[in-house]
């Protein structure tokens, strides 16, 4: 699984960081997924390995502009570039209205491809395209907001001899089992997918959080994950000054949850613009904040593999579950 950060700034862009967007691809597959789409995401994409033509599905965490204002532009450009394949957008209430109203008021009437909206704020939300399986976890933020728990579906080796012995005919039933679905035979006997199918490698599982001031809400999902990508907008000292009303996390809060769940890998993102990449020697202000403050604060609580996201930096979660910058 390969992640490329297209934006890592909270609220407003900086010269180094755009607002939130994350590209996800399964290894060398050219198809990819987009999680959040802040304004200017399509500009960042031009500097990434991904093209809007191969974009399979978009997941939006919540309706705040720094997570979705890039949608109309990205979709309109894909249309002008000749895309004809349907595009699925999984998002909470409000996103479909926002996109369709923008097009209605800006002379975009006939897209060459259909947009399929799926409400990720519904209790029964579940996405499965045969390559990934995605569920949503409700977060705590100023508007309804969701984290996405994304599980890879690796190819499976099917035990042909066992299925022949059980009398399961080749065809749709085999396909169902390979998709992880249990089947019931005419004689009433149940065949469990896990008994006859072995994944080619252990599925990689990640959680991509939305904006959230209670990382512990992810406790259960993280028990079954290799990596968490989560906002750390502030350090504790800054949160104490600005107050809790924006409903964001500190580096310490996220790190504690990652430590509690013995999570192997944590990538922090969505940093307040007050955190500079480096201390500026020209600054007249002595107490300048840098992203190193966020790292140091998280490190006090979490001893696993900790990284801070950078725009246009890619990371690969390997099949052996190691995480590398690429
Ligand atoms: Zn927000």
Verbal overview:
With 326 residues, the chain is α/β, with parallel strands linked by helices. The protein has 2 domains: 2-154 and 201-325, Metallo-beta-lactamase, Chain A (4-Layer Sandwich); 157-197, no CATH class. 24% of the residues lie in helices and 25% in strands. The protein has an 8-stranded mixed sheet with strand order 6-5-4-3-2-1-18-19. Strands 7-8-9-14-15-16-17 form a 7-stranded mixed sheet, covered by helices on one side. The model has no long low-confidence stretch (mean pLDDT 93).
CATH homologous superfamily grouping of the largest domain: Ribonuclease Z/Hydroxyacylglutathione hydrolase-like
Which parts are unreliable, with pLDDT below 50 for 5 consecutive residues or more? none
Major β-sheet profile: 8 strands, mixed
The count of β-strands is: 19
**Amino- and carboxy-terminal Cα gap:** 12 Å
Query: Which small compounds were modeled alongside the protein?
Result: zinc ion
Tally of individual helices: 11
Note the run of SSEs as H and E.
Answer: EEEHEHHEHEEEEEHHEEHEEHEHHEHEEE
Structural class: alpha/beta
Helix content: 10-25%
Share of residues in strands: 25-35%
- Please give the CATH class of the largest domain: Alpha Beta
Placed side by side, the strands forming the largest sheet appear as 6-5-4-3-2-1-18-19
CATH architecture of the largest domain: 4-Layer Sandwich
